[in-house]
Design a protein that fits this description.
Elements lengths: L2 H39 L18 E8 L6 E2 L6 E2 L1 E10 L6 E10 L3 E5 L2 E5 L15 H4 L13 E8 L7 H8 L13 E9 L4 E10 L5 E4 L7 E3 L3 H41 L1
Parallel strand pairs: 7-11
Antiparallel strand pairs: 1-6, 1-10, 2-3, 4-5, 4-9, 6-7, 8-9, 10-11, 10-12
Helix pairs in contact: 1-4
């Protein structure tokens, strides 16, 4: 293959690849548009409106700042971080790729349900709704595919501890700390391909925009929880900013699709023209 033939082939493949990418970009832009319209339909309601004895819609939206629930402020056991909710987990992973099997060796959480407050009152929030914003590697494959609307926005959850030990014979500092405190036995990590230590918490008084399912919670209150199916939203920014970001994502997708179509068509046209001139 000479240089001219190689140039024609590369140009043709590049143009074809861009044209194949166009429908993907259009689908992403359409998805951003649907999400923006869904957020716009579910307007924020006063937190105090989420209470027993009233008819509640399929989705309920609130915006306010995080406050402690009935448990009060809680302290994460490893980092000592104080917040309205925390979860600490030690897990082992065996195997690689699609055959990886995760086993939770130790887990502790606190502060569920916590609250979101505005000027009207406090709405209870189940920690289940944080699923798409916290470590979820131990969940089912279906659960891991669910992402919150606007997931590129800031998360209300922080992760002060996130450690992965690749050699179980040489534990990392946090894993050694967990073993020394007697939270797990050292024999429980023997032979593991990887051992992870993750701690996450939601601080107090951080802004939170939520759209979830209103339902009775475990403590008897009515609050927001994760819908069984369908979209949901958890974000640490005002609703108007989320709508604006989704609108921008849609416009960016359309712009990228347009230029991919133009450049791809030009590349294919140039490729065909050069090939025809050589043949002539």
């Amino acid at each position: 293959m000479d240089l001219r033939t190689a140039a024609i082939a590369v140009t043709g493949f590049f143009g074809f690849g861009l044209l194949v990418l166009v429908p993907v970009l259009l689908l992403l832009a359409a998805s951003s548009g649907r999400e923006r319209r869904w957020v716009a339909r579910n307007r924020v309601s006063p937190c105090a409106a989420l209470r027993p004895g009233v008819s509640l819609p399929k989705y309920f939206a609130v915006y306010g700042h995080t406050v402690p629930g009935r448990a009060g402020l809680v302290v994460a056991p490893l980092s000592g971080a104080e917040g309205v909710w925390f979860r600490t987990m030690v897990y082992r992973a065996d195997g690689n790729g699609d055959t990886t099997r995760l086993s939770v060796l130790w887990e502790q959480s606190g502060g569920d349900p916590f609250g979101v407050a505005d000027d009207s009152g406090v709405a209870a929030v189940s920690a289940d709704i944080l699923q798409g914003r916290v470590y979820s590697g131990h969940l089912s494959v279906w659960a891991q595919t669910r992402h919150a609307v606007g997931s590129s926005g800031p998360s209300p959850a922080e992760r002060p501890v996130h450690e992965t030990t690749a050699r179980w014979r040489d534990p990392g500092p946090w894993l050694r700390h967990v073993i020394d405190r007697g939270l797990i036995a050292e024999r429980s990590i023997k032979g593991a391909d990887r051992v992870g230590v993750v701690e996450e918490f939601v601080p107090s008084r951080v802004p939170m925009h939520l759209i979830g399912k209103p339902a009775p919670l475990a403590d008897g209150t009515v609050g927001l929880t994760l819908p069984r199916t369908g979209p949901y939203l958890v974000c640490s920014r005002p609703p108007a900013e989320t709508e604006q970001a989704l609108r921008g994502d849609g416009r960016s997708g359309l712009g990228c699709a347009f230029w991919a179509a133009v450049v791809g068509a030009v590349c294919l046209a140039a490729c065909l023209a050069i090939a025809y001139s050589f043949a002539a």
